[in-house]
Amino acid sequence: MAAPTNRNTGHRKIMKTNIYPPLILLLIVSFLVFSAWCAFQAAGLGSRVTDADYYSKGLKYTSTEVERRAAEVLGWNLETSLDGRRLTFRLSDHDGRAITGATGTLYLAIPGTAENVYLPLTETRPGRYLVTLDKRITGAIQARIELERRGARLNRHLLLNP
Questions:
Q1: What would you measure as the largest C-alpha separation in the chain, in angstroms?
Q2: What is the DSSP letter of 4?
Q3: Taking a C-beta distance cutoff of 8 angstroms, is the pair 117, 131 a contact?
Q4: Single pTM value for the model
Q5: Which residues span the domain enclosing 105?
């Protein structure tokens, strides 16, 4: 049997296949596969936070930056010296005059211990703050010094090796 012809033109009619239904079906299947993959990824544990205090440290960093800038505006300078086990800090203003009446703390992150060690600083002379390290504290230790006076706070990070 011959292919049907158009009566007006006499040309044979070409059968067109409709490609849209398979494309729509492929799109729906792709969407379902991608959705299933996303659900699988969301249900997994993902990357674990290794530091439970991550968020609070971020907030602490922000407040520390504000305090650091306040100390810089005041023109505070901090000089550190380690003589044996005696750690001395000299706090002065931009003109080199001693800043008295500050309260200070040295925070030590000792490897192998769960908590930081807090050591209060003692003002021995105007602008000079002293702390003596225990003989059990040895090796490289990360430390943070915090000095505060009338709302202005100065924070510095140190690496000690007593």
A1: 116
A2: P
A3: no
A4: 0.53
A5: 54-160
